[in-house]
Amino acid sequence: MEVLNNALAAFAAVGEPYTLLLMAVGVAAGLIAGAIPGFTITMAVILTLPFTFGMDAVRGIAVMIGVFVGGLSGGLMSGILTGIPGTPSSVATTFDGFPMARGGKPGLALGIGVWSSFFGGMVSAVFLMVLAPQLAKIGLEFGPWDYFSLVLFALTIVASLAGENLIKGIIAGVAGLLIASVGEDEVSGLARFTFGVDSLKQGFDFLPVLVGLFAFSQLLTDVRDPEKAKRPMVAGDAIRISIEHLAAIKTIAVRWTTLLRSSLIGVFVGILPGAGGTIANILAYDQAKKASKTPEKFGTGVPEGIIAPESSNNAVEGGALITMMALGIPGDIVTAVMLGALLIHNIAPSPTFILTEPVLAYSIMVSFFISLFIMVALQALCLRVFVQVTRVPMYRVAAVILAYCAIGVFALNNIVFDLWTLFWFGLLGYAMRRYGYPLAPMILGVVLGDNAEINLIRALASDDNLWLFVTRPWSLFFLTIACFSIMFPWYQKKRTTQKWTLCFVPGIPLALSIPMFMMGGWVRPGVAVVLIALGGLMLWRRHRNDWVLPTEVAPELRES
Amino acid sequence: MSRLSPDIIISLLLMTLSAVFFVETFGMQKVHLAIIGAKLWPRLVVIVLFFLSTLYFIQSIRATRPPPGAPLTLKGWIIDNRNVIGCFATYALFLLTLPYLGMLLGGSLFVFATLTLIGRRDLRSHLIHAVVAVVTIGGMWAMFRFGLGVILPEGEILPR
């Protein structure tokens, strides 16, 4: 009953006409941003943040979620119509979307993309509503040791996604922690790393750092090539297409297993910190191809090749919101920005967040839900407008957005120091991009730095026994996954050449069963038994196959 | 090792930075009666950063191979990044002149200058750039000023 009351209160808050109007503007902005190649969704959400300062928390978050949902779906338009994905999370959509459009069915291809996004989002919205409160209950068991290990896990998993640049990924994450420690200490209020500069006493504000590192550097990367910057972002003739909604829904309904599987992949990938739509869409496409009876047809314009990536990349956000709302750990950079937005409104997501701020928590879920409907409506009505925007030269968009970055950042605290912070972090972000340093670990380090420090201090202040980090079950659980995530790049690199890699995946459930056993009760040791059985089964299958190493992955997926 | 690769230079820079930050932790104040000082966490982070930078340095030395093609000169690097350098330069100029020009005038000039610097340079384009600069910055300035109630820097040139 309480859940229903909270959901109704959230519907009432989000359902106000003005909020809906703002959300529609947000979704439209997201659709445009998503359609522009090189203009990522994260950048769009970051740039929206300053406009939400003057709004209350519910309205601000609703607008940002609108931008995000729009952005995820906007990427498919340019991907399907031109073969150039608007965002990295739509890369796999082009594999079959573009051939289908070129084969004379652009309306159907777009329809399948739009409705797969919608249904994928719906599936993840359901998971968000069901899983987030449950995960928050588990989160209430965490002590400072467990939280500290959870932050370490989040940082290592993000760093490990840097692939062969693992060391650069970890350095970026640690540098993020260092940036977060500049200024007054959260516990004692003492100034640190100010080097005698008064302005540094307050530390770096989250927004200018984020805008500089991500948006500013991205824009400069986009205009680096003088000739490319002057060309329209997407070339080609003007189009006159209408989306075939009914045919698309029928096509998806027949292939509901692909939709469901891909959405579940999206939710799962979203729950993992740092792993976003970019990974989910490729993974879902790969799984759809493997599950298909006619895998050889993939790449020629089959509906499954659009359904899988589009439903999974939209399902990611529901998953990412689950961890943010339940544990206060952002699932990706976008949710890191939302976390920052909540902090600006003096609300810190934690396991008690859903309990203490039920209307706001449910508003996030409801906004996500409503944004999907707005997205479909706008796609149907304004498709041509969104595509036309992509014909503007990149340099014009970049120059204007650079100025908007400055205006938005200034509006946060009304101090010019923030604009210089934006400048220096823009330089740093550009250099990082140029020399192969991933930005996500640094951003996560900046966001989670204070959290990590406070929990470490709390842990050590209550007991100086460092063994507690490995003897407390949840802490051990997170440290175990952190170890596996650190080893993941080596596993990926060697999986076709070295036999030890065959034990890597089975090793994960086997290792995780130890902390599960330590948790006591009946359910969790039961889960541990299942994990042991799963790991054992995988090992047995490898043994039965004479420990044969897998072959190379498909070339188009490897390139992606 | 025929010459320094960017990775080696960056790793050396990171090691130096970590050392500087480590030394800085000794200048931090102490809080009486505090069980754990304010310096513990930053010092821990700096030590980890130094350790990782050292690993990165060793890795970079091992991996150094002569880069393919002609060696990159400073002139080549500047030509390669001229748009980026131009954008940073105009942005720095915009920030330096902000107290005098204000956000409305300074922002419009920044957009116009950046568009002209990195974009097309003919009369029609200049006109488009001017219109884009005035409309986009003017519109955003008005939205913040009248819509969101945020007073952006007014400068000294335009009348208040």
DSSP strand (E) fraction of chain A?
A: under 5%
Low-pLDDT segments, ≥5 res of chain A? none
Q: Give the biggest sheet of chain A.
A: 2 strands, antiparallel
Please give the alpha-carbon distance between the first and last residues of chain A. 47 Å
What is the topology, as strand order, of the major beta sheet of chain A?
Answer: 1-2
Please describe what this structure looks like.
The complex is a heterodimer of chains A (560) and B (160). By secondary structure, chain A is mostly helical. Chain A is globular and about 70 Å long. Chain B is mainly alpha-helical. Helix content of chain B is 71%, strand content 0%. Chain B has five helices and no strands. Chain B is flat, with a radius of gyration of 24 Å. The mean pLDDT of chain B is 86. Chains A and B meet through helix 8, strand 2, helix 9, helix 10 and helix 18 of A and helix 1, helix 2, helix 4 and helix 5 of B.
Secondary structure topology:
The complex is a heterodimer of chains A (560) and B (160).
Chain A: H1 2-14, H2 17-35, H3 41-48, H4 57-82, H5 91-102, H6 106-139, H7 144-160, H8 166-180, E1 183-184, E2 191-192, H9 206-222, H10 226-230, H11 245-254, H12 256-271, H13 277-291, H14 304-327, H15 333-344, H16 353-356, H17 358-389, H18 394-413, H19 416-434, H20 440-462, H21 468-471, H22 473-494, H23 504-518, H24 523-544, H25 555-559
Antiparallel strand pairs in A: 1-2
Helix pairs in contact in A: 1-17, 2-3, 2-4, 2-17, 3-4, 3-9, 3-15, 4-5, 4-6, 4-14, 4-15, 4-17, 5-6, 5-14, 6-11, 6-12, 6-14, 6-17, 7-8, 7-20, 7-22, 8-20, 9-18, 9-19, 12-13, 12-14, 13-14, 15-20, 18-19, 22-23, 23-24
Chain B: H1 6-25, H2 40-63, H3 74-80, H4 82-118, H5 123-147
